[in-house]
């Protein structure tokens, strides 16, 4: 009953010994479905971008040396030998003393090496006066200057933002291989929980966790399978976990664990397959009852019933596994530095997480005030807080005015 | 030809005079579809959370005064009068000198005001020895302590994260009213652009913008309608823009504008409805040809053809409008402070945006090095850069070593 619980890092090491998350299979998606997916292949350019020397202005394609010395007073006169429209292959060749009319985005005519902007020219019938000299390659975007053929331009494991979608389009790629989203079965346990949308009998509460955790799964790139509420009873629990392990790549339960000898979930997990439960409680607050099992090479995370504890444990243990299974890279956390408004005590011998609100002081620096979660791990407190601070188990408190790192829930603490 | 172009702020004011974005209609979604949607109603609690006084531990429900003075040596002996299971309405009343067995999450029996943890008790048949006194309300979460009935707990305009989804579930709400996503028609123009996935004829390039801009629309909460490539020809352009205005709430074109008198798009827009084009070129670099029109009370943004210019102009002008139409609030931008590695010149008289890469110096501070976009607004340069800096039109350069704000493309510049 009073055994020493592993620290967060020890718990992660124990999990790693029995289970290493690997990217799942690949699937092909079109560009319109590619946003925020994780690339499952290196992308090497099969063409040059742009594919030809391209004029960047409207004007006249010329040989630069024919313009040398030109200025307002002594323009150079060139003979117009033709016209290159945008999207066409130029048929005209620019010989010495000649110029071809050209438009922004059109391919440079052969013979020409530069383009004079139309603003610096005067048209006179089939000749043009050049009022300003250009140097070689001026106003020309060289073939391959954006992307060289053969260049590996995107790499496996990159998350596709609008900019990477643009790179794929530039190469003419309409379909791309991305990693499959890991499927995460989410189930809530407890005799007291009722599905939202139904009447609430006496003694019951609405199920928060299946919904909040499913949303959290989406947010880190997984596909939640919300399996609803399972009664805390061995046969039903076994059937539900079997089904979850069959349908999903990772299983998340919440509630029904309290690091006590009567808990059903750990017993069922141990009976379902090897190695079974490998972490049974973690030295953290909140989140102490968090239990981790591996059954048939799939991880099962049994999170506490309190919503704030469940979301914190999700963040620390489940999210990194889902991201690794999705082939992605963990993003650097969104943190700010702040000073604490008050002395904040930790739970003795346990890593303590304290939700805080941020304000700016007169000099514009962040000040973090603790928002106690109370006994309950209240969901509203969590929704109102800006982020949390972490106090190491070796420390008894953080002093007032001490500088701390705040892990933000939101993009920005002060919208 | 040499008229003065409006600044970015003037362009925004001109748009505002003719068009104020308003949230579109509402729609009802289930909790599983609610993540990242914008709430279209205030949410007031119709129940208390928790709905009853709830035990937060396994143990015995007691009257606190019956435990006063109890310690290891002189425990208090109480008579067990019953048991309260989780999810049940307690039928037992705890009278003076009595205790009811209770479990975490179960409603407190009437008469009792606190719970003694099982660890601090010894069971003796139908009596229990209490080894530690409790105070009133100890180990009890009071009804309504998380959410009070009637409290407005979420507000219109909030974006729903997993935490807010949890709050909705806590209140038993299974369906919620959110704002409709603004539909943004996206079309590319130009004789030279070809849809990715097709062969690339000579003189052509693949269309980047329709794909990158559609992804950017998604990213800020809109629903892109990718209408593909439209030829730069008046009748076709008119038909395409009419169709786009009919199908969507906002229209985005790219290419085909160069602030020249021969441009087709502005002419067509002026012919389609009042007031037509209201901003025709903006004093910025890149992005100068950006043209803004309002036709039949819908905004039309005609962005430059160069992908980097198009994405920048989208960010500055289109994104805020889409966010406002979606009923949301603009998030604070993700910025870091950095010093510049080199002197960076601006374009005379135009707001200049320079893409940069970030590194950390020995002291851990960010140093920003410019990544020239070149003449082309190359998409790969954009994909490789960490963010951009903005140089005001009143300045000719930013000096080497000067402190600047870098607007990040990514969550974190150094993954």
List keywords for this structure.
Molybdopterin biosynthesis moeA protein, domain 3, alpha/beta, elongated, homodimer, 415 residues, Molybdenum Cofactor Biosythetic Enzyme, Chain A, 28 strands, six-stranded mixed β-sheet, Molybdopterin biosynthesis moea protein, domain 2, 7 helices
Description:
- The structure is a homodimer of 415-residue chains.
- Chain A is α/β, with parallel strands linked by helices and 415 residues long.
- Chain A has four domains: 8-25 and 181-325, Molybdenum Cofactor Biosythetic Enzyme, Chain A, CATH 3.40.980.10; 26-49 and 145-179, Molybdopterin biosynthesis moea protein, domain 2 (Alpha-Beta Complex), CATH 3.90.105.10; 54-141, Molybdopterin biosynthesis moeA protein, domain 3 (Beta Complex); 335-408, Beta-clip.
- In chain A, 19% of the residues lie in helices and 31% in strands.
- Chain A has seven helices and 28 strands.
- Chain A has helices at residues 8-18, 162-170, 209-219, 234-247, 264-272, 307-325, 379-384; strands at residues 26-30, 43-44, 54-55, 59-62, 76-84, 98-102, 114-117, 121-124, 127-130, 140-141, 152-154, 175-179, 183-189, 193-194, 205-206, 223-230, 250-254, 275-280, 284-285, 291-295, 298-303, 335-340, 344-345, 351-360, 366-370, 387-391, 397-398, 403-408.
- In chain A, strands 7-4-6-5-9-8 form a six-stranded mixed β-sheet, with no helix packed on it. A six-stranded mixed β-sheet of chain A has the order 16-13-17-21-20-18, sandwiched between helices.
- In chain A, a hairpin with a 5-residue loop joins β24 and β25.
- In chain A, α3 (209-219) runs parallel beside α6 (307-325) and α4 (234-247) crosses α5 (264-272).
- The longest helix of chain A has 19 residues, at 307-325.
- Chain A is elongated.
- The model of chain A has no long low-confidence stretch (mean pLDDT 92).
